[in-house]
Every structure is written in structure tokens, then in C-alpha cells.
Amino acid sequence: MGRERAEALSPYQSKPMVSRPLFYTFSFLSFSCLCSCKQLQEMASQFNLESVREFLTREEDSIVFSLIERAKYPSNLPAYDPSYSTGGALRNYSLLDLFARETEAVQARAGRYRNPEEIPFFPKVLVLPLVPAVHSQVLHPASASVNASNAIWKMYFNRLPQFTAKGDDGRYALTAAADLVCLQALSRRINYGRFVAEAKFRDAPKDYTSAIRAEVDLSDSPFFSFPSYFLMFLQDRDALMRLLTSAAQEETVKSRVKKKAKVFGQDVTVNNISKNESSRPKYKVDPDVVVHLYGDWVIPLTKLVEVEYLLHRLD
Ligand SMILES: C=C(O[C@@H]1C=C(C(=O)O)C=C[C@H]1O)C(=O)O
């Protein structure tokens, strides 16, 4: 058992290495996780759409900062090329894949994924957490595990060229670390769509229940036939999507992230003396790229998570 656990933690390490500093670190993390469990339970009593939106607003800071941090390095493509890393049994994995798996395994042991707000990208890596389980006080159990992690991973790599310069400076480990911070921040935000959906459901249970039930009832309908069922299935998803969408809120979010990208991403100079006075302000990540990332990906994926959550809300 001990060996299995050590292998799950690190496939290259045959013996578990438990040093005294590591023991103290885990003890501290276990303690802080117990404290945060208490906080999670307290949060459940103040749960509403407003508190959910506050959470999403705060996550914008993490996302914008993490993109700025990743933009410090050029594209560094070998970090994503499985032929670069010598992964042994995991040779089909890129350096980033390996880094993400191993980091998540350590974080899983410290209890990161005991927190219902967090979902790993590599859930199949079996790791026994060192802290007790937390049962979500908020999410509906049948839909609590809905997530868009695969789509988030793909989306991130499609967008990468827009906020990194082409090039290779050899700092692949730092690049992978910066990537994982971005991916985890995006995942937390987008998969938080489950909490948004729960808050909306509690605010208008009748409206949501009839939209959800419309989909369930159709499969039992005597008029059921595959093409019409399929069409209506899409329409019902559409109805849910319409119900949960707030165009005004989306515009607010996009304007705010643009402002954050400008404020966080500008060079700070003393006495307002800039090296190139005449040029337009230069940002570390183009604010319009952040707006498009939100408008084309982050918001639509959050809404897909919301719809998916609601479809299982009455299970
Ligand atoms: C998250 C919400 O649901 C939807 C998604 C939004 C987003 O991802 O920012 C914003 C408004 C809604 O269309 C919300 O209402 O706050």
C-alpha cells in the first residue's frame, strides 16, 4: 500500500521519502485545511448569487496575474512536446503533463481536492489525501462533479500564442509552472459555474425545474422519435442557457477584466518618467486579448458548466 502511494505520488521514485521538514509541512497543511474546512462550512450559510459573483470577481485577479506571469517567458514549445521529456513509463507525456500530474498529486495529498471548488486535471492519479473529507454544504451531490477540465486544457493551448511571444529561452520548468498556475486559476473560475448554477436554481427553483424537467419528460413521450427528440433536447438546453444568461453581467465582467489587464500589466515608473514617452502605453498582456479570452472562452465555458450542472440538478 505504502509503495502504491509513493508510486502514485512519483512514478520515478521507488521508496517514499518522508523527511522531517516534509512531515511538518504536511502537518501544517492538514491544520490549515481543517481551518479552511470550517471556513467552507461557514461560507455555505452566506451562499447566494452576490457572494458567488464576488468570488468570480476575485478570481479575475488571479487569472490576469497568472497570464502576465506566463507572458514573461516566450512560447517555449519543447515544454509541450512529449519527445523532449524522458518520462519513462510516462513517455507520451510532455513536461507540462508530467509537471501538472506530479504537482496535483502533492496538492491532492495536502487536501486541495477535498475542497469542492477545486477539480484536478488528472483525477486518475490515485493519491490518498492526508486530511479528512469535506462534504459540500452547497452543491447538489448528483451534479457536484460536473466540470469542463478537458475543454479548459484545450482552450488554454489554443490561446497561448496570443499572450506569449514566439521563441525559446530554455526555461521550460518555469514555463510549465507558470502554465499550471494559469490552468488552475481558469479551472477554478470556469468550474465554479456549478456554484453559480446552484445559486440561480435556489433563487428561481420553479423556473429552472420546469426547464430541467422538460428535457427529462421528452424521453418518455409517446411521440418520441430520434430527430425530433434531438431537436427538442437542444432547444431545452437553449432554454436553460437563456434563463441563466445575463448579458449585462457579462459586459460588466469584460469591462472589468480589461481594466485589470491595463492596471496590473503596465510598467510602473517613478516620477512618471517612461523610457519611451511618445509611445502608447505598453501592457505585459494585451488587454483586448484578455477580453477575448473571457468573451469567447471563459464565459461560454462557465455557462456550459452551469447548464450541465442544472441538467443533473433534479437527479
Ligand atoms: C456567471 C454568471 O452566469 C453567466 C456567466 C457569466 C460569466 O461567466 O461571467 C456572466 C453572466 C451570466 O451570463 C453570472 O450570472 O454571474
- In terms of structural class, how would the helical and strand content be classed? mainly alpha
Give the H and E element order.
Answer: HHHHHHHHHHH
Q: How much beta, percentage-wise?
A: under 5%
Rg from C-alpha positions?
22 Å
Mean pLDDT comes to 83
**Count, helices:** 11
Largest sheet: none
What small molecules does the structure contain? Answer: the ligand C=C(O[C@@H]1C=C(C(=O)O)C=C[C@H]1O)C(=O)O
- Helix proportion range: 55-70%
What overall form do the CA principal axes indicate? globular
Ends distance: 36 Å
Report the strand count.
Answer: 0
Unreliable residue stretches: 1-36
Describe this structure in words.
- The chain is mostly helical and 315 residues long.
- The chain has a domain at 198-266 and 281-311.
- 61% of the residues lie in helices and 0% in strands.
- It contains 11 helices and no strands.
- It has helices at residues 2-9, 20-45, 49-70, 95-109, 149-163, 172-191, 193-203, 205-218, 226-244, 247-264, 287-311.
- The longest helix has 26 residues, at 20-45.
- The chain starts with a helix and ends with a helix.
- The structure holds ligand ISJ.
- Ligand ISJ is lined by residues 53, 196, 244-246, 249-250, 253, 299, 302-303.
- The site of the ligand C=C(O[C@@H]1C=C(C(=O)O)C=C[C@H]1O)C(=O)O has 11 residues, from helix 10 and helix 11.
